[in-house]
Amino acid sequence: MDGARIQQAEQIFRELLAVDPGQRSSLLVTRCAGDEPLRAFVARLLDHDAAGMGDFMRRPVIAGLPAALGLETPRRVGSYTVLREIGRGGMGVVYEAQQLSPRRTVALKLMPHGPASEDALRRFRQEAEALGRVEHPGIARIYEAGSAEVTTDTGANAARPFLAMELVSGETLAEHARRRRLGVRERLELLARVCDAVHHAHQKGVIHRDLKPANILVNDQGQPKVLDFGVAHIIADDPASAAMRTSTGQLLGTLAFMSPEQLAGNPWRLDTRSDVYALGVVAFHLLTGRLPYDVADLPIAAAARRIAEDRPLPLGTVDRALRGDVQTTVAKALEKDPAQRYASAHAFAEDIRRCLRDEPIAAHPPSVLYQWGKFARRNRALVGGLAAAFASLLIGLSAAAYGLAWASHERNEKAAALQAETLARAEAEAVAAFLADMLSAADPKRDGREARVIDVLDAAAAGVDERFNAQPLPQARVRHVIGTTYQWLGAYDRAEPHLRWARQTRQELLGERHPDAIESLHELGALYNEWGRFADAEPLNVRALQLSRAVHGDVSPQTHAATHELALLYSRQGRYAEALPLQKEALALSRRLLGEDHAATLTSANGLGVLYRRLGRYDDALAVYDATLAARRRTLGAEHADTLVSMNNLAHLYRALGRYDEALELHAHTLETRRRVLSDAHPHTIMSMDNTAMVLADLEHYDQARALHLEALEHKRRIYGDDAPETLVSLNNLAVACTGLEEYDQAAQIHERVLATRRRVLGDEHQETTISMDNLAQVLLKLGRLDDARGLFQESLEARRRALGERHPLFAESNLRLGRLLLAQGDPAAAAERLDVALAVLSATLPPENQKVRQARFALARALHLLDRHDQAEPLLRAALDMAARQDGFAAEWVRVSLMLAAVLAAQERHEELDELITGAFERALTLDGRARTDAAGAFDELLETLRRLGRTDLADEWENRRRRFDRADDGAGALPGGGPGRRQSQVLPIHSQVVPNAASSTPRSDWLTTPSPSTSPTHCGPLQPKSPSTMPRSDWLTALSALRSPGHGGSTSMRAAARVFGTGSAVTTIWSRSLSAVRRANGVPNVATSVPVRSV
Amino acid sequence: MSDELITRTLMAASRGEPRAADELLPLVYDELRRLAHARLARAPRGTTLQPTALVHEAYLRLVGDRDPGWNGRAHFFAAAARAMRNILVDRARRKASVKHGGGRRRVAMDDADLPIELPNEDVLALDEALTRLEAADPRKARIVMLHYFGGLTLEETAEALDTSPRTVEREWRFTRAFLFTQLAGQQA
Prior knowledge:
heterodimer; A: about 1100 residues; 9 strands; flat; B: about 190 residues; 8 helices; about 75% helix; globular
């Protein structure tokens, strides 16, 4: 029916509705003028209209706009009578309401939608109960929490959670101050009282998390009242609200009052000091009417960055009257590093009151350091990680305050304390002056170019001796600052003399137990630790921990830092056994102090899980991760950042366990959730991109992997800069994906760039630098540049030997890689030497069934076999066989090891077990498919080769015949070696389309070079002499490689290419030829003579 | 982030920028689907999602407490109505295909069956009739979208269409009867 016709019908319909029903049918006939279909149609319309059509289209799909948005004021909520709306926000609407019993007027906060679950509701009630125990005149009390049916004028709605709170009638802090025209002193007094109230709640274990002027009212008696204490947290516990809270609308109002750690989205790092920060912003706002950062017109991300990085506006620049101590006090509350803030709201209140009494305050002016921080940030793009250097500078000066505390604590003498304070001040001033000089020397405006931090440091280091000739303690402090900055720049060698000097001087002049001395000890130990000089680090770290415990106590931040450092050291050394108890100790301590389910405890537990994973104790790791994940889900919700960390770690473990599909699903889920809950640009989200992409690469979806790595890379370049270590990680992964896509030139180019940058930024011996060497070498192998690859493997190995020592797993891995390459290059003697080291270290640090241990064991056995050291090969193979027999899913390995053992026994003329071994291997081989089966065939061919080489042609022929019988016994398709090229086919999970919207699907393929394992290693080819592959045409090399990867595919072309590359008599060509024959045999193709003469090894 | 985008888009739509309204649809659609998945992930099996609750939550997530004004809200609901229509039709079509032995096809999660509560009306027939009506008389189709799918009252619908409530009431009365005949005709 076209539009004109409908409008015609409508016109008549309307006219008829206007007339009396009795006249309609006759009028209808007239109006339709003989158009019978039209008449019938309108008649039907009228009939339906008259009949009412029941419910048809009466209930809208989405219920009404105002009701849906909660714009209707409810009349009742449970037993509360709603009087009027007071305010509304994304977290719900607040009403003034009447409670029946006890009879009182309350502020009733109604959540926007129902509880997510019974569990969530129970938790909501419990936590509200805890909040209810906070009683202080400065805090609005929480009376009741629960879920109740909401009744509106249009009827009853579903139950919604509510909170009943003390109703505060009054005005906001700012309104109060403005209306009463309060002066600075009165405002400061008010602030101190707010701090008192906040401190009271802190002592009851409650953090506000959402302090802002709108949440602080002043009642008629002039009493400030803090509203919504802890409410943000219990509401955010509901996952739906938690997600909502991160929505921009919610953030906007509070962003300016959020501490950098809160903005970093790391809720477990929130503590009372985050509230101190918010109090600092409230103070700033109350005193000046402005915010310390101008974020009003910025997009969220930019605003967050400004708060995290920029220096806050000094109070004095807004109002000169506020310069001096008030400015310093507020600035200390606004410190970016929580450790640098007032430790409590109480301490903040104390300093405010000191300002009021004109007494010296505890905070120190930070201005010079701020300049330094700015300078460091300017240069961060150059050196990476310099924000941390900034932090270390701040630690330097605040140590003066520790010194003071220590003096009064240790001697408890006022005079001594005063003296210490004077000293500390003098020291701080001297240092500040020196740093200011340094900065002005480096002022970019002076010579028109940006000075490099390291140049400035060099200049400073050269002048420090002269300048502080007779002032050892100030000199120590300056050297400490210089040293830690060098350290952050990775210039460890230059850092060392300064830190050593500082440590020695402080120890001699202050005594070992002085906090400054401990600090220096700790820092020097940390330097050695990071440098990789573990032997030097260890005694320092150990001592620093002892002293921290003795001086600062077991539960102090210093002791925690020292414990952490030592655990880190052991972990880096690969001394997991020693790291483990430390980690456990931290966990136990945290459990005792904070409870089983506390976020910090769960973080410790997570750390333990990580350690277990590194230890290869995957079962334990799995148990810990599972438990931690469950607890975090329960206590924090399914979408809490910590919960997502747990998911990420679990997925990572799945990957280590080879459970790639599960790993991918979990990583993808985590990524998707993080994108939604945290934003695309959050560091955690970006990490998820990389991790998801790595599993995608494992599953050979290289296109998708590359797309994700590229996305991560873009974010990281923006956030960290091009040369930052974080960025390099993504770049490195990207190159690995390119390798998978066989874009070797590109991969090599990227790896070369990453390697060069890492050499420059991190140094030649840094772990990540050595990883780059290894990765580049892997690509060079692909490009046929075997000698270049070997050079890099060797360099990586030497670097690790020096930096990590010979007992480190990474050093062992280097030996493994180099050994395998040497074996492939036909140097079993050199290979055996490397592999021997690899096996010894790996089996000392990893469980016997660990893949790397197995690789090392098998490769070493092969090398020994080739060297005719059969008696040494045999026990290795027996151990391998024993291990493979005990594990599920190791059938392919069992087959390979059996056949290898058979070869070793045959070489020793020991035939007694041969029959059993080979028959067993055959039977197991028939259960294999894919590449495993092809490999088994290759291994069998090699055994025959060995037998023939030993002159046992009779045995070889006999087994050849028996194999044919096996082949026939099977039904062709399953015959040995069968199964085609043995590519691992993985399921493409549907979720990919969400993770990587536009990634083209990639062809799964496998590469023995990027994923070396005994089953795919070419080393079973025996010695081979590449004919200078580096000078070979690349296409030949690639064809030859593909022949290696999938013998039987590519036919004679690949074989000829192989012959060109490796030489006609090489083992590669031989093995390829044999495999081709085997495939043809299996497929019933007669074994045609090839144009390449085949010679046995 | 999409929520910033959506505020800007809502504002633009309120100012009458014609393309803005079109840009809203995919934003709201994606959000609804994402929310539905998220809700399902933590809901017990067999849960049916309420369109109203979903749209409500999407609104709070995307717009939060930055009230875009009445006009902005109406635009949001118009977009939500269109998105929900697509989702419902999808759901109904899937149900029908299962009934007729269409079988279970392995689908990407994005296309997975979302157990959204279907209205009493025959969604597929209604969708077809509405599609025809859109071609023949777009204005009436728009009333259906705003009032029936989007839940705007007739007064609000009139306001959104910048016309008088009386006109919309009359048109709605006719359109409802019209669609009823269309659906009844199909069944006959």
